[in-house]
Design goal:
With about 210 residues, this protein is mainly α. It has one domain: de novo design (two linked rop proteins). About 75% of the residues lie in helices and about 0% in strands.
Length: about 210
C-alpha cells in the first residue's frame, strides 16, 4: 500500500515538474506547427491539381509556347517527387528542397500566365477564366497558410530555445523546426498576378475565392 502511494506521489511530482518546465507547451506548439504545415500542403496540392487542366487549356490556343508549357509541367513533376511528410519538418535540407521546388512552380505559373496575356481568345475562354480565378484564390490561400505556419514555428522554436523549457526539449528530443526564409516571406506579399480580367498588374493579392 505504501509503495503504491509513493509511486503515485512520484508520478504526481513528475507531472507537475514537466508542466513547470514547458512540456505541455512543447506539446501544444508542436501540434500547432503540424496543423499549420498540413494546411500549407493542402493548399499547395490544390494548386498542383489545377496545373494539368490549365496547361491543357493554354495548349489549345498557344500550342507553340512549348517551352513555357514544358517548364510548368516539369515544375509540377518536381513538386510531386518530394515526399512532404511531417518528418520533412525535422530535416532543414529537405525542407529547403521543398520550398525551392514550390518556388519554381510559382515562377513557372507566372510565366505561363504572362504568355497567356498575348492570346485574347484564350483570355476569353470560359474554362481558362474559371481556372485562373481558382488559381488566384489558391495563391492567396497559400500566402495565408504560409504566414500561419511561420507564426506557429516562431512560437514553437521560442519554447524549444528558452530556458527552462529548452532542457525539457533536449530530454524529449524536440528540436527547432525550419521555416520559410526572408526571401520567401517577401514573396508572400506579391503572389503572381492572375486576374487579367480586372487589369490588376500591381502584384497585390486579390480577394480569396
Amino acid at each position: 500500500m505504501f509503495k503504491r502511494g509513493f509511486a503515485g506521489l512520484v508520478l504526481l511530482l513528475l507531472i507537475v515538474s514537466l508542466s513547470g518546465c514547458g512540456y505541455n507547451q512543447l506539446q501544444s506548439t508542436d501540434e500547432a506547427v503540424t496543423a499549420a504545415w498540413a494546411e500549407v500542403l493542402n493548399q499547395y496540392q490544390r494548386r498542383a491539381d489545377l496545373v494539368p487542366n490549365l496547361v491543357n487549356v493554354v495548349k489549345g490556343y498557344a500550342s507553340h509556347e512549348s517551352e513555357v508549357l514544358t517548364q510548368v509541367t516539369e515544375a509540377r513533376a518536381r513538386v510531386g517527387s518530394i515526399q512532404a511528410t511531417p518528418e520533412l519538418l525535422e530535416n532543414p535540407e529537405a525542407f529547403q528542397r521543398f520550398t525551392q521546388a514550390q518556388g519554381e512552380m510559382t515562377s513557372a505559373l507566372s510565366r505561363l500566365l504572362a504568355v497567356s496575356e498575348n492570346y485574347p481568345q484564350l483570355k476569353a475562354d470560359g474554362s481558362f477564366r474559371d481556372l485562373q480565378a481558382q488559381l488566384e484564390g489558391t495563391e492567396n490561400r497559400i500566402a495565408v497558410a504560409r504566414n500561419r505556419y511561420i507564426k506557429s514555428v516562431q512560437d514553437y522554436n521560442l519554447v524549444v530555445r528558452r530556458f527552462p523549457s529548452n532542457l525539457t526539449a533536449k530530454v524529449f528530443g524536440y528540436d527547432v523546426k525550419p521555416s520559410f526564409t526572408v526571401e520567401d516571406e517577401r514573396a508572400l506579399s506579391a503572389p503572381p498576378t492572375v486576374d487579367f480580367g480586372s487589369g490588376n498588374s500591381s502584384g497585390q493579392p486579390a480577394p480569396a475565392r
